[in-house]
Amino acid sequence: MAKSAVVRKSRITVDVGLDGQNMPVEMKWVASDNPNGSAPQECKAMLLSLFDEKTKETLKIDLWTKEMQVIEMDRMFYQTLRGLADTYFRATQNKELANQMQQFTFYFGQATGAIPKEDEV
Predict the structure, then answer these.
(1) Do 16 and 62 reside in the same domain of the chain?
(2) Region for residue 113 given its phi and psi (left: phi exceeds 0; alpha: psi -120 to 50; beta: otherwise)
């Protein structure tokens, strides 16, 4: 499959402030196309996956600051899993597996407290 011609570029930058033990203590990101403006925005965690065309392997960068609380991480993973299931469906149109992913995500959300359990609603 031939690649399409690049007609414009966008830049995403993540700056990570490290402490003396090389642990993230501050993270800020900025994107040239961010509709909220060009000022760097703070975040507590990031998950980045890149698929290498040559090796067919996924490269990952997972970072979080010392201030990231477990309840926040649970919520981030719940929201990320929801997004991954939606993205998987849009990319593959595999409704059955996407639905199974969403079912697991719902279970994960309830088990971690990221969403209320059905008997608590």
Answers:
(1) yes
(2) left
In the block, tokens 């507590």 appear at 44
Q: Which long-range contacts (CB under 8 A, 24 or more apart) does 10-15 make?
A: 14/46, 14/48, 15/40
Q: Domain of 84?
A: 69-113
Structural contact between residues 76 and 62, judged by C-beta atoms closer than 8 angstroms: no
pLDDT grade for 3, boundaries at 50, 70 and 90: confident
Average confidence score pLDDT of the chain: 94
Q: What is the pTM of this model?
A: 0.86
Domain count across the chain: 2
Q: Which two tokens stand for residue 43?
A: 């975040």
Q: Residue type for 105, please?
A: T
